[in-house]
Design brief:
By secondary structure, the protein is mostly helical. Helix content is about 70%, strand content about 0%. α1 (about 1-30) runs antiparallel to α3, α1 packs antiparallel against α5 (about 105-120) and α3 (about 55-70) packs antiparallel against α4 (about 75-100). The longest helix is centred in the N-terminal third of the chain and has 28 residues, at about 1-30. It is elongated and about 45 Å long. The model has no long low-confidence stretch (mean pLDDT about 90).
Length: about 130
């Protein structure tokens, strides 16, 4: 059972870190996503009603979050990173809802949010802030 949990943790965590890194770099570089489900970066952020400089903040937070969840130890940093990712991704989803975007534009953030929750739930004891008995 512990092995199964470890596999689920690492698959979700590596998938999450990859998604955060890819989208974070794209946001920092202001690249446009050809064929993206959600509005591509610089154009999309303006369509949502935000200034383009927010891409630098979001991209940096995503990269730092990816590093934080992959680092060994530092359980307090990980808790903050998971909480920050939760707020970042739910905020993005609600921005799309509030601006009247199509439902499928929520899918990228929803997918990363699901990976965030799975990774957080299955994290090993040494990566938890408070240890609980199994």
């Amino acid at each position: 059972m512990a092995s199964k949990h470890k596999i689920i943790y690492w698959l979700s965590t590596v998938g999450l870190a990859s998604g955060l890194t890819g989208s974070g770099v794209q946001q920092l570089l202001r690249t446009e996503g050809e064929g993206a489900l959600a509005p591509p970066y610089a154009w999309g952020i303006v369509e949502l009603g935000y200034p383009t400089y927010i891409l630098t903040i979001l991209g940096l937070w995503k990269l730092l979050g990816a590093v934080a969840i992959l680092l060994p130890k530092y359980p307090l940093l990980k808790e903050w990173a998971y909480a920050g990712l939760f707020f970042l991704l739910t905020g993005g989803m609600f921005s799309h809802i509030a601006s009247g975007d199509a439902w499928y534009q929520l899918l990228p953030a929803l997918f990363l949010l699901a990976l965030t929750i799975v990774s957080w739930h299955f994290r090993p004891v040494d990566r938890r802030l408070l240890t609980r008995k199994p």
